[in-house]
């Protein structure tokens, strides 16, 4: 019973979507019921055909009844066609709405969710899991409903025709039901495993495809193939177990049904000979009964054949439900930012200055493992703050906390004196721009990739931002200039060009705070010098956080923070830190190197 209730929950989740399209559902149910009623009616017509027309030799009457029987079967055919068309439409509408909600939900999830799930796993929700739901609605739902209604109708007519003989057939039906129930319970676990293995395989494919260049550089094709084979074999095993049920259950049920037909026919003939039910159970009644009995057995086999799709859909729905139940990003902000006369201001009218202050901030991606320990810093408006330290020291984590990608464990962070948690996240992030070491470009034109920083930016704004970043010259020499379409994350550009577009995208946003996380790491020294003036213009008047391994790029910063082990161990400007003779001095003079 507990397993049954567990399967009902995903179906309840699905019905929440199906119920949005009540008219389509109602029309489909109407045709399903009509088809089921006609299916139950057809066998009963055999009784008068045999008793009243065939045996007495009434040919005209026989022809009339056969025409009536043909009409009934035509109703069955038309109803089946209409219900199938409607359910396909319903499946497409439901899948469309489901995918839309999944995508919207993903946009609301915190960064911590993406840290724990691969891109392939998330993609599997849109493809495999949603597709199994669509297949179930369009192909299996009608068949399962029809099977249940037909079975009930046939058994009812069997009871009317011969209640005693129905008990004999009922024993076989009970065995069939037990087989279906037990096998379905065992098979469900395999379908859940199949969906999980499919997600794992998709994640691996996505990762290996995007990392194809790295694989070839290190000649790891063999290891990649072995990794794929391992996951593919796991999927083969779970899929085989899941599909084994469908492969063995139908022949088994067919054997039970054949035995039922033989036994019931023999018992029924003896009842006819013995004049059972005062002679009312005659040869016509027996033929109708046998037909009903076969029709009642067929839905059981049909239902069992659709169980695979039902279980696959249930497993997919469980994964979709799990995603939809994930807590969204916390956003309790009351402060927002508006723009008046070209200047950004808080909702109280105070201008947005870009004053960032950390007060004794503690943070860890895992609750009991702190990455930052008691961090305190003050970035005054218009100042440039450099973060220097070994890999994993916590530099990027600090900038991630300014964006509220993660929630701090202790202390406070303020923006212009306002606690970050009191600022609406959209407004907070629209006042910030980041240029990351790993540049991501979308499959779109160069112009639209830059405009992504501010969607209402004009073409002139886009080109001015490109000029500011030093990207205008190379863009204007592309085949279609700003309308050149980028693909595969900008694979038709050099790494340096991709980084310049990312810088232009940050520039067009006109942010109060700018974060440069190894922004020039992929640009050669010559190119870096060419864009120094543009970067200076970009940083002018803004609060800037710079993360860099090239210490030459942070010499002119107002304050340099040396971070190790999640703590600030030195702070000051370039000259002050050199005079201190500590870690920064050792790094700058080459006595030690950054990890």
State the gist of this model:
The chain is an alpha/beta fold. Helix content is 63%, strand content 11%.
Main sheet properties: 6 strands, mixed
The count of strands amounts to 12
Strand order in the sheet with the most strands: 8-9-10-5-11-12
Structural class: alpha/beta
Low-confidence stretches: none
Inertia-based shape: elongated
Distance between the termini: 58 Å
Radius of gyration computed on alpha carbons: 35 Å
Proportion of helical residues: 55-70%
Query: How many H/I helical runs?
Result: 19
Mean pLDDT: 82
- Fraction of residues in β-strands: 5-15%
Description:
- Helix content is 63%, strand content 11%.
- It is an alpha/beta fold.
- The longest helix has 53 residues.
- The radius of gyration is 35 Å and the shape is elongated.
For the structure shown, list the relevant keywords.
19 helices, 6-stranded mixed β-sheet, 63% helix, 595 residues, 4-stranded antiparallel β-sheet, single chain, alpha/beta
Topology overview:
Layout: H1 2-18, H2 22-54, H3 59-108, H4 111-116, H5 119-161, H6 163-210, H7 212-217, H8 221-273, H9 283-324, E1 337-340, E2 343-346, E3 356-363, E4 372-379, E5 384-389, H10 395-402, E6 410-415, E7 418-419, H11 425-430, E8 432-435, H12 446-451, H13 459-469, H14 472-476, H15 495-508, E9 513-517, H16 525-530, H17 532-539, E10 543-547, E11 559-564, E12 567-572, H18 574-580, H19 583-589
Parallel strand pairs: 5-10, 5-11, 8-9, 9-10
Antiparallel strand pairs: 1-2, 3-4, 3-6, 6-7, 11-12
